[in-house]
Every structure is written in C-alpha cells, then in structure tokens.
Amino acid sequence: MTIPYDEALRERIREHLANHDRRAVTDPTKRHAAVAVVLVDSKVGEDRVDPVPVQDWNAGRPMPAENLDGRMVDVSGGAAFLLCRRASRLSSHAAQWALPGGRLDAGETAVDAALRELREEVRIALPGSTVLGLLDDYPTRSGYVITPVVIWGGGRLDPDPAPDEVVAVYRVGLHQLQRDDSPRFITIKESPRPVVQIPLGNDLIHAPTGAVLLQLRWLCLEGRHDAVDQLEQPVFAWK
C-alpha cells in the first residue's frame, strides 16, 4: 500500500530524526559530500514507461539477475523520494543510481551542499526550512564521507535534470522500500562485511545509495535506530 504524503508523515519523520543519536564519521583522509533525500508526492501509474532507453544506458553493465532489466517502472504512488539515473559519460560512478548530491565546497555545511546540488542537478530550489534532519554519515570506498539530508519537498515538484549529470529523475514511492524482499544481503570474497541490495523496480540499488535508502526506511518510517555505515558496497563502486 502507498504511504500518504501528508503532515502526519512529515511530523513523524521529523520526530524520528530529532530523537536519533546520529552517527557522524570524522576521517581526515576522506572528502566530505552530501546527498539530498527529497520527499515528494507522486501518483500511482505515472511511471509505467521508463523515460530512458535502458538498452543504451545499461550497455556493458551486467544485470544482477535474469528477471531484472534495469528499468525503474511501477514504483510511484503516494509519498516518494527523488532518485536519479546518472549520466553514462561521467568520469566517476557513471550510469549508477544516485540521490542528488556531491562534494562540499569550501565553507559549506552538509545542508548547504545538499540544497545546492539539488538546484544544480535537478533544478529544484528549496529553502533550509524544508530540511527535516540528517541521517547517519556513510563512509565510501571511493574516499568520501556522505551526509544524507532529508528534505520535505512540499508537493510533487518538477525536476528538470541537468543533462551533463543526470539523464532522468524518478519518483519512487516510500512503500517500495518496505517490499517483502527488501533489504537483501549478499557476501563477497573481497570483504567480510555484507553487501546491501535494495530491490526497486527492475533493478537493485547498492550502497552507498542503498544504505541511505535502508536507513530512510528503518529510521524515518519505522523508528529503528540500526546502523548502516558498516554495510558494504559492491566492488564496482569501490573506485
């Protein structure tokens, strides 16, 4: 069932974030980045056709299972978050699923950076008053500490992706994070830590985005304070 996008949800998420003892990571060897977890409204069935030709976007990218083709369809409805399909020509983490975000500029806070990246990547401008709180920091294998900033969009909004960075933006219903088959954990020979996978549409979302989305479910929706910073990324995301 979809989750209503209303003031009750907004206040529940704000309260859960306020009551959370946030895990901050201080590592001088890593650069600091922020991502925007933007909560918006959506309609059931508005995403039955993927706007991206996934055959081209997935060229050379192995699918995780025979029944998955990489399309992000039939995921909208009710309260949702914005998920980006990154451009395939980017120099790093190309053709991956991501939340709007990027590296902090000099003197920026994580909140400032998340709001700026939201403006630059998907052309949505929101004030600091829309921020509900922060999730735990997530240290990546590629040398970053990511701070997720949870933002209340206040409606459907109208993303306009910057084509040099993002090829499409999807409204993914929060109820999709609570699928019976989610989350999934697998083991890899390269690490003793479990790799997290979040099934969405016809694909799997891995950490760091997958870890952020898992805590969005556990903490914001369910009030669980479980840590996600030790969940592993797949090897292809280590660079």
Automatic annotation (TrEMBL):
GO function terms (MF aspect): coenzyme A diphosphatase activity; metal ion binding
Superkingdom of the organism of origin: Bacteria
Entry's transmembrane regions: none
Cofactor: Mn(2+); Mg(2+)
Entry keyword annotation includes Magnesium: yes
Keywords from the named record: Hydrolase, Magnesium, Manganese, Metal-binding
Transcription regulation is among the record's keywords: no
Domain Nudix hydrolase, first and last residues per copy: 30-196
Cross-referenced Gene3D superfamilies: Nucleoside Triphosphate Pyrophosphohydrolase (3.90.79.10)
Similarity field: Belongs to the Nudix hydrolase family.
Cross-referenced PANTHER family: MITOCHONDRIAL COENZYME A DIPHOSPHATASE NUDT8 (PTHR12992:SF11), NUDIX HYDROLASE (PTHR12992)
Protein name: Coenzyme A pyrophosphatase
Organism the protein comes from: Mycobacterium florentinum
Organism placement in taxonomy: Bacteria, Bacillati, Actinomycetota, Actinomycetes, Mycobacteriales
